[in-house]
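Issue 218. Parser rejects a valid record. Input:
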Amino acid sequence: MAFSPFRHVGLKALALGLAVLLWMAVAGDETVERGLRVPLELQQFPVGLELQAEPPSLVDVRVRGSSDTLSRAVPGEIVAVLDLHAARPGRRLFQLTPEHVRTPFGVEVVQVTPASIAMVFEPVATRRLPIVPAVEGDPEPGYVVGAVTVDPPTVEVIGPEGAVQQATEAVTEPVSIAGASTAVTESVTVGFLDSALRLKTPRPATVSVEIRPGPRERTLRNRPVHLRNVGPTLTAQAIPPAVDVVVRGSREGLNRMDVEEVIAFVDLAGLGVGEYTLIVHVTDFANAGVAHIEPSAIQVRVTSAKD
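Output the parser choked on:
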């Protein structure tokens, strides 16, 4: 068949137009450079070794490409990758070059910072350590902390050999006993102050704190009974006018206690003329608690102020 340059001239013109438009689009997309902070991924970590300290999780890379291509790059498409399969115990230096950076098509890596990363590898080790529970706060005045137990009492730690050998204990998140007058039991997380260490078998621990009455008592005799909230046209008389207050606490707490803070009172709010048997209360005070009041109730005679 004879060649005819005008055969299918419409299709040829369309193809030429599309090619020109594509060239114009590519030629018009400006090539730019950008600095990015990208994740560092460690691959083929050697079995039986641990890192003494965590390497940087991010590195800086300078990339080049069309503005459109770089703007379309999504997080995770550009990643620096180090292969650790040949790592051995000791301090090792790994080069980080543009060839170690994974990029989408059309993106070129110009520079990586840092250019090298030092890592210290140690043999992995395990060891059983005691759990030391953390307790915070003070119990209710008049009560003291008794035995503190934890279940399980020990855990198995795993990590770099050096860190494992230096560790002496596992710790718990604090258990609050603030204001407690009965035993406190709480399930808490167990961990280590050294972030290089971890539990071989992660599990919580149960901490039990015994709270018991203070071992010592002190009697405050003849504390006057204050009559509160007496009506404006009324008068009141307490029988007896004073009580004995027995306080309980530790020796140190009782020694620090300010006796003048121990105020006995009865509340007459809403009461009119008459005789009443009322419970005696004591205001809150520091360093100790009320064991009992003798007598615990008194007679109060309310009369009119005109009488």
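Fixed in the parser; the record now loads. The chain has a mean pLDDT of 89.
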